[in-house]
Amino acid sequence: MSKARYLAVANLSCESIWDIRFLFADPAVEFLNTGPGREVAPKAGRRFQDILHDVRHGAYELVFAGNNAFPYFNPRKNLFQNCSKIIGKVLRHPNLLKGRVFPYANPNFKLVGIDMEDRPVIDNRWFHILEHSACFFKRELPTNPANAFLYTSARMECNGNVLHSARHRKWMKKLRPISLGIKPDLCRRYADLELEKKYDVFFAGDLINRPNRLAGIRQLERLRAEGYAIDLAPEKLTHDEFLRRCAQARLVWSPEGFGWDCFRHYEIALVGSVPLMQSPTIQRYAPLQDDEQAIYYYVEGNHLAVRIRQALENRPRLLAMGQAARQHVLQWHTHEALSRYVIAETRRTLAESGTTP
Question: Is the Cβ–Cβ distance between 34 and 96 less than 8 Å?
């Protein structure tokens, strides 16, 4: 029996916005760049014509579709703005057309959408992927999946209308959560890091235009005045210094960034500390459990300080929780683990529907 083959189709031109780099961990995945520039994937794909031929003939077990640079019809802009944007981009970068082909190349192949963007809404650029996919993995997946389609059209300004749409109800059944996970180089460098715990709580992060963080900082400053060992970094740290300071703290405050899920949650756990996170606003994949591998707090009032005081009543237990958090992310949130998850979950979904990849 031949080994499984997979294809990942995405904008590989800009590493800072590319969303499916965790698939680099799987040697069975081939990559195709649909972005306007040069590919940044570690292994170059074959010619577009050859890949498209294999897709049409069912050579790939699954095809992963990530963030595509192809411009989409934005319902919040007028017809002229949409047409000029789409035509202008395609004329400048014909390579963008590649990403539009695959959902229609072969109706029998198994497509998997992967949206790792910060926004909780699945905008119109993903609709052709959603329609043809078996599963659609979204990082910032709202707890009410209907909210993922809010404001994608004038009619969808109310989530009640989303629920009355047969198309959107079908799409909601395909939605699955996924995490950002831990980069392989960090796993290699920090999975065994053990530093003496010098601080009760550590935080480093931007405070400008971040009202939720400003409210939390005031609580941390009051705790420091009470005698708790609070390490606050007013200056920007290098990534290595940030992780080392995390490793020296029992708790590390990890408030919401542009999205609820962020790399910091998993990096804190990787170095053996306990992430201190606000109550989640999204559906999560393999979440760190409250009072087992993490501490969660509500944003209202002084609940952050309340949870910190409670947790620090048993400092030795926090050491054990930090080690449990490390083992959890190494089991579930490495790039290898995320790759296995999307493949296994898609296979399970297909099997339940009576379809085999």
Answer: yes
